[in-house]
């Protein structure tokens, strides 16, 4: 028997380059933690990268989290498959389709059992984009056009016998205006 899985995806808070969270990132994560304080998660996962682990610790009080969902390029488009500027961007990093497949196996689809599950994954922009693209059934290269802000919340519902549903995407309603849109060079 399977039951609905609610997958809560979070991009880490603002961080110093290849380092820990900035003070802004810590505040973003704490505010998201307040927002999610009433949610009981059946599983919590975070990337092994420091900025994601710190974000996860500020969001959850349980302290029980599993390392998964790292920072990697899940798919590099073939020549002509994606606009050149996107393909060139992806080509700057090593591709890890194996890790993308592991993430799909671990985080997508209805949950086993007879109770709905709520799972939190604190990760990075690339994996949020990959899992949203997967839920929408979009071509592999489209992850390159899906961007998540720091400490933004995305929720995907995987219900039995139904296609995935994108319930929330890039929601920042828990953040005041000055803490939104970090992680991007241009603000709307």
From TrEMBL:
GO MF, one example: hydrolase activity
Lineage of origin: Bacteria, Bacillati, Actinomycetota, Actinomycetes, Streptosporangiales
Keywords: Hydrolase, Isomerase
Enzyme class: isomerase
Top-level lineage group: Bacteria
EC assignment: 5.4.2.12
Gene3D superfamilies linked: Phosphoglycerate mutase-like (3.40.50.1240)
UniProt name for this protein: Putative phosphoglycerate mutase
Organism: Nonomuraea soli
């Amino acid at each position: 028997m399977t039951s609905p899985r609610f997958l809560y995806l979070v991009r880490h808070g603002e961080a110093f380059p290849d380092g820990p969270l900035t003070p802004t990132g810590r505040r973003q994560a704490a505010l998201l933690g307040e927002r999610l304080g009433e949610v009981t998660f059946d599983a919590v996962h975070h990337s092994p990268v420091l900025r994601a682990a710190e974000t996860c610790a500020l969001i959850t009080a349980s302290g029980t989290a599993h390392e998964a969902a790292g920072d990697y390029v899940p798919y590099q488009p073939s020549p002509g498959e994606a606009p050149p500027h996107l393909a060139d961007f992806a080509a700057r990093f090593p591709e890890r389709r194996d890790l993308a497949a592991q993430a799909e196996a671990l985080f997508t689809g209805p949950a086993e059992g007879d109770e709905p599950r709520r799972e939190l994954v604190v990760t990075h922009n690339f994996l949020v984009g990959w899992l949203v693209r997967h839920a929408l059934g979009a071509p592999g290269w489209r992850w390159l056009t899906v961007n998540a802000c720091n400490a933004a919340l995305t929720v995907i519902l995987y219900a039995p016998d139904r296609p995935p549903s994108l319930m929330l995407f890039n929601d920042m309603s828990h953040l005041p205006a000055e803490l939104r849109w970090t992680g991007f060079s241009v603000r709307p």
